[in-house]
Amino acid sequence: MISTKTSKKISKIAIYIVLVVFAILTLTPLYWLLSSTFKTSTEAIGYPPTLFPKNPTLQNFARLFDARNFNFKSFYHSLIVSFGAMALSCIVATLAGYGLSRLKFPGKKLIMVGIMFFQMVPVLALIIPLYQIFSTYRLYNTHIGLILIYATLSAPMNTWILKGYFDTIPDAIEEAAMIDGLSQPQAFFRIALPIAAPGLSASAIFAFFKAWNEYIVAMTLTSSMRPYTVELYRFIGEQGEVDWSLLGTAAFIAIVPIFLLFSFAQKYFIIGLSGGAVKS
To answer: Residue 200 maps to which CATH number?
Structure first.
């Protein structure tokens, strides 16, 4: 019969094995993408495939930055739209989350359920009415149009995250500040908002990721002002025989902003998500 100590050790080993396998499955495609970036076109499609580039080169970057191969204005468009959507989503979600956390009124739970229900609506169900609305109000093929949509798509989840985070902040802290002479808005900006910074960071990252990676809306509601995801697809579809080393380089560049943002804010992202999950 297996002892308790042995059973715990076996369980621990099994968990580590699962984690290692998961890490390999997650990192292998990223490594393959990275290695293809520094391979020649011939080596990238060669068989058998090489684990490491035989002759590492930076020529793929030079070829990609040639406007005849790729339109890098799309990168600029994606940055504007993603940061704009992130800012708008965080502003709306912060105010909504704080109000839902602090105020008591009839139908509050129904509103919370409605917010979450909206988050579950697939974006494909909204494409046709969005196209009609955008055409009517001249928002088609504009930065502000995509910013409004992406902020709307991420605001419900961010509202839940921040509402849960504000719930973890005792009311007594703000009440003490107001006794000392602060108004309700001043207590919010000086007390509650700084404490909720990790939740706000998590919301910002979530909104940026959602806007940066989105494709369907951008493809449908833009023509010349194409974000990076749409340009990447056009690059695949219009080049005839795909140059995998060049495509890998373009995809690698798409990962860089997300990697940098998450590297700087991963601590707050994890804390913010766990904090916002405590209460609802």
So the answer is: 1.10.3720.10
Nearest C-alpha neighbor of 210 from the set 255, 151, 164? 151
Tell me what the pLDDT averaged over the chain comes to.
83
Total-model pTM = 0.81
Domain identity same for 116 and 225: yes
Question: Quick one: 128 and 213 in the same domain?
Answer: yes
Compute CA 113 distance to the chain's CA centroid, rounded to the nearest angstrom: 23
Domain count, the chain: 2
Alpha-carbon distance 36 to 45, whole Å? 9
Query: CA nearest 82: which of 269, 257, 247?
Result: 257
Reported residue count of the chain is: 280
